[in-house]
Amino acid sequence: MKYQSEDYFSVIETKTGRKICDCGTEIDALMMVSYDPNNRTITRNQFLMGQVIDVEVPKALPTSNISGPVPQKIQQEYLESMYPDVPENEPLVLPQSNLEPFIV
User: Fold this and answer.
1) Which of 27, 29, 66, 73 could disulfide-link 23, Cβ–Cβ 3.0 to 4.6 Å?
2) pLDDT of res. 74
């Protein structure tokens, strides 16, 4: 079992016990305490991560169930059924506009 711990630091207001912030490094926490050293203190917290599990990924996908490419005829029939309004051999032309061209 491998456990990986992470330490972080909380800056606490001593008069009220209110947490001011959490810091990832002790230097940042000390900087926050330096703004009001008589009223702030630091606590070190340790967060235990869950168990780390090493997973091995297979190097290649199995190819026994993969079928060959779909024939062109089936692909064309599928596209025609999905997009019946698109003309086959006509080029698509955008309508002209009355706006002036934008020149940079």
Assistant:
1) 29
2) 66
Beta bridge partners of 47: 6
Q: Is the four-CA dihedral 86, 91, 95, 101 of positive or negative sign? A: positive
What are the tens digits of pLDDT across the range 50-85? 777 888 877 776 666 656 665 666 677 777 777 777
Classify 65 in phi/psi space as left (phi over 0), alpha (psi -120 to 50) or beta: alpha
Please tell me the distance from the alpha carbon of residue 57 to that of residue 60, in angstroms, as a whole number.
Answer: 9
pTM of model > 0.90: no
Other Cβ atoms closer than 10 A to 52: 9
Torsion of CA 21, 19, 13, 4, to 10 degrees: -70
Of 43, 42, 15, nearest to 31 by C-alpha is: 42
Query: Are 51 and 62 spatial neighbours (Cβ–Cβ below 8 Å)?
Result: no
